[in-house]
């Protein structure tokens, strides 16, 4: 039987090496994608890592949308109190820096929930932003050295920042009547060209506009958009296209990772988190094997009366490939015999049956519905119609009860058969049966 598999999105390994994706951005294993190797053994090694990896840490924090915290980190970490911590199952890291397989550029994953076996050992320290009355707590798991933002909290009883003395602004000049804005034709194409009035430029709120905006800004201007020589729109589009605030960023799930990310998570269309989520691989299309051997063993009841034990052996042929509109159709040819074991009418018979089946799948269940023609061949020694040789019309319905549809399995089925010239006597001469089908 063909058993359809539900499609899912693709993915690869993760920084802390994810083991399951039962919830959005869930990680279960430490150490596959470390920011630092080997594992950290002491707070002194953590300090050395933070000191030697400043540029990469800044790059990662910028990607996480927390670039403003890097100056706090540089100023306060050398004097920060570092404590050992254990992070229990269910702990959420707001963002975490990592390197895929421990090499390459720094990547960022957001809203990661620890769901492994037991707690994770790590180091913890805090930074304080007195101007904004905020405290930032960072975690660094020992097994990977991945710097992570654990939580942001408002400082209680924080003294307000001193107010700056306001210099009275000069009176504005007399307003002039508004002048009409003329948009050059090139600006109307949507390209963010230097010299286009801001009113003529589309707001880069969509991803396409953001990419277009950034492509028109030199790398130096992307890093420092207010430098001399950088077009003004670089600062505008970067501010609109900046990463969302960490508290507003929805977690990336397997549904956000295109199937190609399973083999190439560094592709431009793949979010960084796709390299970290252990999503199920893309489903591989499976079809019924072209040929497989089948055998039946069962019982027929004829109300005439007669009782039979029957057995058949043959082959099933599935000629249509997966994706074809007839992929569920198969054909079976079987040869066997029916031994009369009771009743006053009927006779032993040789059976030769040919069936056409529709194979269905519903969740984890599968089976078939079939119809065909069969020969019931007897010795001819019985005088009544129940014992002569006939061409039968056959109806079947079965469901798998044991085994894998791709391997050996057993199905239970019901069958009705009657000679084509005896349909008016179906209740008397028809044979009603049940049995087991073995597929090899």
In short:
With 440 residues, the chain is α+β, with helices and mostly antiparallel strands.
Radius of gyration: 37 Å
Which overall shape is indicated by the principal axes computed on the Cα atoms? elongated
Order of helices and strands: EHHHEEEEEEHHHHEEEEEEEHE
Largest sheet: 8 strands, antiparallel, barrel
Strand order of the largest sheet: 8-9-10-11-12-13-14-15
How would you explain this protein's 3D organization?
The protein has 440 residues and is α+β, with helices and mostly antiparallel strands. The chain folds into three domains: 26-158 and 255-275, no CATH class; 185-241, no CATH class; 291-439, Porin. 14% of the residues lie in helices and 33% in strands. The strands form two sheets. Strands 8-9-10-11-12-13-14-15 form an eight-stranded antiparallel beta barrel. A seven-stranded mixed sheet has the order 1-4-3-7-6-5-2, covered by helices on one side. The relative contact order is 0.13.
């Amino acid at each position: 039987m063909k058993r359809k598999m539900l499609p899912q999105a693709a993915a690869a390994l993760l920084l802390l090496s994810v083991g399951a994706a039962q919830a959005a951005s869930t990680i279960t294993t430490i150490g596959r994608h470390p920011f630092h190797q080997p594992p950290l053994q002491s707070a002194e090694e953590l300090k050395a890592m933070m000191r030697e990896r400043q540029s990469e840490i800044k790059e990662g924090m910028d990607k996480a949308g927390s670039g403003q915290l890097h100056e706090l980190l540089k100023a306060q970490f050398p004097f920060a109190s570092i404590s050992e911590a254990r992070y229990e199952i269910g702990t959420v890291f707001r963002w975490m820096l990592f390197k895929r397989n421990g090499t390459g550029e720094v990547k960022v994953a957001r809203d990661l929930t620890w769901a492994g076996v037991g707690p994770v050992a790590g180091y913890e320290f805090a930074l304080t932003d007195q101007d904004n009355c905020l405290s930032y707590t960072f975690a660094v798991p020992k097994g990977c050295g991945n710097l992570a933002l654990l939580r942001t909290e408002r400082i209680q009883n924080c003294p307000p920042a001193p107010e700056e003395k306001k210099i009275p602004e000069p009176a504005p000049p007399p307003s002039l009547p508004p002048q009409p804005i003329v948009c050059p034709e090139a600006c109307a194409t949507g390209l963010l060209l230097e010299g286009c009035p801001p009113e003529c430029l589309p707001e880069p709120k969509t991803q396409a506009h953001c990419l277009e905006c950034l492509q028109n800004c030199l790398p130096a201007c992307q890093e420092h958009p207010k430098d001399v020589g950088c077009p003004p729109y670089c600062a505008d589009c970067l501010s609109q296209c900046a990463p969302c605030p960490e508290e507003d960023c929805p977690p990336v799930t397997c549904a956000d990772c295109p199937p190609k990310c399973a083999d190439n998570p560094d592709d431009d269309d793949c979010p960084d988190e796709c390299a970290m989520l252990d999503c199920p691989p893309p489903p591989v299309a499976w079809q019924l094997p072209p040929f497989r051997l089948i055998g039946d063993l069962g019982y027929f009841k004829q109300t005439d009366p007669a009782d039979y034990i029957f057995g058949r052996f043959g082959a099933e042929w599935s000629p249509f490939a997966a994706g074809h509109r007839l992929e569920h159709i198969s054909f079976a040819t079987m040869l066997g015999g029916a031994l009369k074991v009771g009743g006053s009418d009927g006779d032993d018979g040789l059976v030769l049956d040919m069936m056409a089946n529709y194979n269905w799948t519903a969740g984890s269940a599968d089976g078939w519905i079939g119809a065909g023609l069969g020969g019931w061949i007897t010795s001819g020694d019985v005088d009544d119609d129940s014992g002569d040789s006939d061409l039968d019309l056959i109806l079947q319905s079965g469901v798998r009860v044991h085994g894998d549809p791709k391997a050996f399995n057993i199905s239970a089925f019901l069958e009705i058969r009657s000679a084509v010239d005896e349909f008016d006597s179906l209740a008397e001469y028809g044979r009603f049966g049940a049995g087991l089908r073995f597929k090899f």
